[in-house]
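Per your request, structure below.
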């Protein structure tokens, strides 16, 4: 046997590569675009510069012209000159025409793309390498081409190199700056503090209105699409991959194997059907083995086969990711600082958490719809190409490209509708949430009809947007069906021709019909799968934005535990502003020795409660320091700080639970007896016992079933059982009657022994015994001292006192501005509440 000429092998390889190149590049483009579309869809679309865009389109048109001319010449040789055409070259020319038309359509359809993107860039690289190699091969071997074809090929190689050069130039520069030179700032958001380092996907945060400075200063560090894709994957991956759990990892493997087996069954079933037909038509015997094998395959393909197994394996995986997502979102909300909770819209946050859990739906769609569908398409092109020749591969690839392109166009048109639909859904949820939680306010202002109208109009909007969204989805299905039917017609003609020419058995025709049907159903999922995945991604965006939010109050990594403090407090020149603009505290300094009671008084809005919030570390002082027993509170752990401070807030709220559980919330190991004692101290014990369910009575949402005074007393009872070292009373007795107040004062004074108390009071009668009274005005301490000292000073505090005392103003006018004796003010005024005047 003569040895094979190495040049023949080279020729064979070159031809095989030539006929496979368009197919493989098309498949690459398909997969890469799918990944790019899904994972970079949330980024802002900033167009390529127009000259660059137009230049690229021009170059691609030239490439198309060369492929078109080459295909026409080859067909002319075949039809006109009756020469046998070189099948691989014709397939190459036609296939390349298809690939480059697809790339061109991607560039020209819809808005100008933001960047060239890795799918296009990849195709250009593949073609540059391949066409250069083919050119080199034709120039250096005996396999010479006609001069025309050489010109076409050389032109293309030059253009491909230019395109590659452009994309290399474009990647760092253009994607970093917009047309006007503005630096991009879409992906320099702060890192997700508990997601993997480097996880930075370009999502904006829920209430982010502050742009990240780093984005302005480092425009050239902006990542390209591909790295964004990986960053997004990095963000989502920890929620999905059961790190450290080998059992669950094995389940992933099981699911993967089921999916793989599914793909094979998809191909084997129609082939088996074709084989049965062939045996029946040609051999006239009972193909019982084939039938049994076919039945087995059908069984595996049915709902009781691999599908059921896969679903069974998937349940623990989905539950695991749900648990991670739900707890991460909840923990994050609980860990966020007061500024977030002040700003948040409850409806939006709840919605974001709920929708965050849709990441698992997204993964389900990706794993069970999108990836199998893409794999099926790739396999279909290869299988049909192998079974019926390159023309069939070309028909299938054309159908798939047209199908995907038309669906993609409709999806792009839907994008705005979808966004609109989601924002309307959010609005609906917000109104629902706010109106129901603020039902009392709505009723006080007699705005129930107004709220009903508001809700009904947003529901109308939603219905409208829903209708338009669905109509387009139906239009998409119609277009898809049409493309598939046309493709089937072409394929049927080709195979029928091959059967009639005796080149194929009848079974091949049956196989084609069966296979096409199997291919059509995953294709039909294309739109719905991608639509749902993009909706889920928008949902996931909110969730990721929530997770990316950094708490403004963070513990230092070397924070110490504040253990059993004595309760010495010191504020040193503390300045604070909530919004960075309006200064609320303008240099507050005071000290409280262990066991002292410090009272904060002053006009409303002077910053009294803010001082308490800073001490509790709801916010961080902008300037100055706050110390407990000489430790700066920012150097100790939040847990240990807060466990040493008991708070009776201005507006205590309870959980929708029993009285007993609500009080025990302050000290989870408190006994029933301790709770009864605390309630007795605030004169609630007998009241609770007289209720039908006693301490087991449910208090309703936020404690609505209790009166304001009762709520305040429950809040005090909570602090009594918490038994902290430092107590903050923010108008703790403002809602109770005088008799109850004196009881509470008694229980507070017994509680006060050895503890430091800071009291905010409008009713000055409650703080006359305080060791130190600080009178605040406009964020400053304007006076300090005990009651008698301040009265004798006859200043701001004295004026406040007189306003609350019986005939205060009169006595002032009677006696001129001189307050002679302090004794006169030693009685406790009974005025219900100090209501300051603006003139103060
Ligand atoms: N979360 C917040 N964000 C922005 N500004 C706030 C916030 N909380 C309070 N403020 C503003 O800070 C100022 C001081 O509020 P603060 O509650 O400390 O006053 P206060 O002296 O306790 O008043 P009151 O006696 O009425 O309770 C007020 O003008 C208030 O509008």
């Amino acid at each position: 046997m003569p040895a094979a000429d190495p040049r023949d092998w080279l020729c064979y390889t070159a031809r095989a590569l030539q006929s496979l190149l368009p197919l493989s590049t098309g498949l690459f483009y398909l997969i890469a675009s799918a990944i790019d579309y899904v994972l970079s869809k949330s980024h802002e679309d900033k167009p390529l510069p127009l000259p660059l865009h137009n230049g690229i389109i021009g170059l691609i048109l030239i490439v198309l012209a060369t492929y078109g001319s080459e295909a026409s010449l080859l067909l002319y040789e075949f039809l006109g000159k009756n020469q046998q055409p070189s099948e691989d070259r014709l397939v190459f020319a036609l296939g390349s025409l298809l690939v480059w038309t697809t790339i061109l359509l991607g560039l020209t359809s819809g808005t100008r793309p933001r960047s060239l993107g890795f799918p296009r860039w990849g195709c250009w690289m593949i073609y540059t390498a391949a066409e250069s190699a083919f050119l080199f091969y034709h120039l250096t071997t005996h396999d010479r081409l006609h001069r025309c074809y050489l010109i076409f090929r050389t032109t293309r190689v030059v253009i491909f190199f230019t395109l590659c050069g452009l994309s290399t130039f474009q990647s760092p520069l253009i994607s970093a700056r917009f047309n006007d030179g503005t630096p991009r700032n879409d992906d320099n958001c702060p890192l997700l503090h508990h997601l993997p380092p480097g996880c930075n996907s370009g999502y904006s945060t829920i209430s982010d209105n502050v742009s990240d400075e780093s984005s302005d200063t480092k425009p050239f560090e902006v990542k390209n699409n591909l790295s964004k894709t990986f960053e997004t994957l990095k963000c989502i991956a920890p929620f999905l991959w059961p790190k450290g759990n080998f059992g669950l990892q094995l389940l992933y493997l099981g699911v993967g194997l089921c999916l793989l087996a599914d793909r094979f069954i998809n191909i084997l079933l129609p082939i088996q059907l074709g084989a049965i037909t062939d045996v029946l038509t040609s051999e006239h015997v009972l193909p019982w083995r084939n039938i049994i094998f076919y039945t087995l395959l059908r069984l595996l393909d049915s709902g009781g086969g691999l599908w059921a197994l896969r679903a069974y394996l998937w349940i623990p995986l989905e539950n695991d990711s749900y648990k991670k997502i739900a707890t991460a979102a909840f923990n994050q909300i609980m860990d966020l600082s007061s500024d977030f909770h002040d700003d948040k819209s409850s409806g939006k946050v709840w919605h974001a958490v709920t929708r965050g859990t849709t990441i698992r739906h997204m993964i389900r769609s990706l794993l069970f719809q999108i990836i199998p569908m893409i794999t099926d398409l790739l396999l279909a092109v290869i299988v049909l190409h192998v079974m019926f020749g390159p023309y069939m591969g070309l028909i299938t690839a054309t159908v798939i490209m047209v199908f995907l392109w038309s669906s993609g166009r409709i999806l792009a048109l839907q994008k705005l509708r979808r966004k609109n639909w989601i924002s309307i859904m959010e609005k609906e949820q917000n109104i629902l949430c706010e109106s129901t939680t603020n039902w009392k306010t709505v009723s006080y202002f007699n705005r129930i009809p107004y709220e009903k109208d508001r809700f009904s109009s947003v529901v109308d909007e939603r219905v409208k947007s829903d209708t338009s969204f669905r109509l387009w989805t139906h239009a998409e299905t119609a277009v898809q069906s049409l493309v598939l039917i046309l493709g089937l017609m072409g394929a049927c003609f080709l195979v029928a021709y091959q059967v009639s020419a005796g080149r194929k058995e009848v079974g091949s025709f049956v196989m084609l019909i069966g296979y096409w049907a199997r291919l059509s159903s995953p294709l039909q999922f294309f739109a719905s799968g991608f639509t749902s995945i993009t909706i889920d991604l928008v949902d996931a965006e909110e969730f990721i934005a929530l997770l990316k939010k950094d708490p403004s109050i963070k513990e230092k990594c070397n924070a110490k535990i504040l253990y059993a403090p004595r309760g010495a407090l010191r504020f040193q020149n503390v300045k604070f502003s909530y919004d960075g603009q309006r200064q609320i505290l303008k240099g507050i300094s005071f000290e409280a020795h262990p066991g002292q009671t410090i009272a904060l008084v002053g006009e409303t809005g002077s910053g009294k409660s803010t001082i308490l919030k800073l001490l509790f570390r709801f916010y961080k002082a902008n300037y100055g320091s706050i110390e407990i027993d000489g430790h700066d509170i920012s150097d100790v752990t939040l847990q240990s700080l807060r466990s040493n401070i008991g708070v009776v807030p201005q507006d205590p709220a309870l959980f929708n639970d029993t009285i007993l559980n609500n009080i025990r919330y302050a000290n989870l190991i408190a006994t029933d007896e301790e709770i009864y004692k605390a309630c007795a101290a605030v004169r609630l014990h007998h009241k609770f016992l007289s209720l039908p369910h006693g301490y087991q009575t449910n208090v309703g949402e936020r404690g609505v079933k209790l009166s304001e005074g009762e709520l305040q007393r429950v809040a005090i009872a909570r602090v009594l059982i918490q038994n902290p070292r430092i107590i903050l009373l923010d108008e703790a007795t403002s809602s109770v009657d005088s008799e109850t107040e004196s009881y509470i004062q008694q229980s507070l004074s017994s509680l006060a022994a050895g503890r430091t108390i800071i009291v905010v009071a409008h009713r000055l009668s409650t703080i006359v015994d305080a060791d130190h009274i600080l009178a605040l005005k406009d964020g400053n301490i304007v006076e300090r001292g005990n009651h008698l000292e301040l009265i004798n000073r006859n200043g701001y505090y004295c004026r406040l006192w007189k306003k609350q005392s019986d005939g205060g103003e009169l006595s002032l006018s009677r006696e001129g501005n001189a307050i002679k004796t302090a004794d006169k003010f030693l009685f406790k005024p009974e005025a219900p509440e100090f209501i300051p005047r603006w003139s103060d």
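Residues 171-226, 807-840 have pLDDT under 50 and may be disordered.

Regards,
D.
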